[in-house]
Amino acid sequence: MSIDHIPGTDISLTVPYAAQGPGPTVDTLSNVEGKDVVEISGAETYDTSGQLNMTTVAVRTNMSLSQAIGRWLTTNDTIVPLETVIPTGTSSEEMQQANEQAFVQSEAAATVTAMDYLDIPVHVVVAGVMEESAAVDVVKPQDVVLAVDGQDVAEPAEVQEIIRAKSPGDAVTLTLENDGKKREETVTLGEHPEDSKIPLLGVTMTSAPRDGMNVTYNLQDVGGPSAGMMFSLAVIDKLTEEDITGGHFVAGTGTIAEDGTVGPIGGIEHKIDAAEEAGAELFLAPAANCEAATSRDAGDMVIASVNNLDDAVQAMDDFAHGKEVNTCAP
């Protein structure tokens, strides 16, 4: 989710509301500031001719009463209680950190799902270590996690499942590899900051292909998990000789799970507005968001209903070949 704080407003005079509206759309097949949004090295990639635009929601906070009323009267923004955007007791900085973490997890899931679709094996790589965790002195970024307590793992979700079955204070043994050297490290699980009953390893993880391929997502100032499906599709398109877009302008949104399931997101009405204004021909919408997605006038843009990654690829193929697309019912 794209966050836009309005500058120059005295917080003591602001209202406890936020405005949600259309945010930027970004072509995941393009480049930003000289870098590919989705950068792949160590494997043959193919030129693409279409667009796969992720969509965002712009959120404005710290508004004065007159600013909030102005946006309500003159735009299609949705005015919502501030706590729906920033939960009570959570600072803007904490919310930003949570969004950034969700974005990292979304990138990992996007890589796993794309590799699974293409039958390319992956392994778990440490992306970062929390400074105050017990893991900080023994686990390093770029370590490959081979096993947890002797159980082989290939995806971050498998590590998380093993950890969730334990309790804070339990010790776990990690089998790690770095530069071809294996080692074992024991880590005492901490407490999750939001629930002291939930164990915390203190390590953020991503996925990388085992055959030396590397996938990097070069997109700044965007948080949250809603770009997951579009990232996964971009990876697939770049590694597939045939354009999966059929050369068309496709936009969309949706979380992605490591099993390929596409999940619902918030603010899809504004994402539909942004995509239609940008000129998208086809919009890939999570099936669970269909009712909200069709509440807006999308013009000639077709809104496809998507439950999983296979549905998304099929919708693009049907659209490209002039076949009937499984659309969201109005």
UniProtKB/TrEMBL annotation:
Molecular function GO labels: ATP binding; ATP-dependent peptidase activity; serine-type endopeptidase activity
InterPro entries per record: Lon_proteolytic, Lon_Prtase, PDZ, PDZ_sf, Ribosomal_Su5_D2-typ_SF, Ribsml_uS5_D2-typ_fold_subgr
Domain named PDZ: residues: 116-180
Pfam families: Lon_C (PF05362), PDZ_2 (PF13180)
One BP annotation, GO: proteolysis
Name used for this protein in its record: PDZ domain-containing protein
Record organism: Corynebacterium ammoniagenes (Brevibacterium ammoniagenes)
